[in-house]
Amino acid sequence: MNFRRQLRDEPIGFQLAPMIDVIFLLLSFFMTSQLFAQWETDVPLTLPTARSGQVSRRLPGEITLNVLKDGTIMVNGRPRTAEELRTLLQRLVEIFPGQPVLIRADKATPYEQVIRVLDLCREVDIWNISFATLPPETR
């Protein structure tokens, strides 16, 4: 009785089917994430301008808070009350400490509404906050 296994002499070739599966999954992931990132900037806001303003790259995992002219706070395309926003931000900070937040406020938004959003961020211990502005138009 021969208990030895037969050894293969030829090497196993490159497996193309698993590689195509991985490429397809990566492609669908990046297309989906780009779509969600675009929704946040589709809120109709007129951003204020600043001499140092520039279009910045989004940080990974950055949450965008849109503050409309009437003080409505929009997150993920839905209006949120102050309590809903506080609860959402608290859950995010528990999971991801140091969570970055971008505040996009219309230039006609009363200052009091922006401070209200800043105060909510401070209550839940969010310190990584940035404001969206545009560079001034050159004429």
Description:
- With 139 residues, the chain is an alpha/beta fold.
- It has a domain at 39-131: Nucleotidyltransferase, domain 5 (2-Layer Sandwich), CATH 3.30.420.270.
- Helices cover 37% and strands 14% of the residues.
- The chain is built from 3 helices and 5 strands, in the order H-E-E-E-H-E-H-E.
- The protein has helices spanning 16-40, 82-95, 111-123, and strands at 63-67, 73-75, 78-80, 101-105, 129-131.
- A 5-stranded mixed sheet has the order 3-2-1-4-5.
- Strand 4 (101-105), helix 3 and strand 5 form a beta-alpha-beta unit.
- Helix 2 packs parallel to helix 3 (111-123).
- The radius of gyration is 24 Å and the shape is elongated.
- The protein starts with 15 loop residues before the first helix and ends in an 8-residue tail after the last strand.
- The mean pLDDT is 80.
Record keyword descriptors for this entry.
five-stranded mixed beta sheet, Nucleotidyltransferase, domain 5, 139 residues, 3 helices, alpha/beta, single chain
Strand order of the largest sheet: 3-2-1-4-5
The CATH class assignment of the domain at 39-131 is: Alpha Beta
- Between the first and last Cα atoms, what is the distance in angstroms? 91 Å
CATH fold-level label of the domain at 39-131:
Nucleotidyltransferase, domain 5
Structural class: alpha/beta
Low-confidence stretches: none
Number of helices: 3
Mean pLDDT rating: 80
Write down the overall geometry: elongated
Percent range for β-strand residues = 5-15%
| Helix content percent band | 25-40%
Order of helices and strands: HEEEHEHE
**CATH architecture designation of the domain at 39-131:** 2-Layer Sandwich
Overall radius of gyration: 24 Å
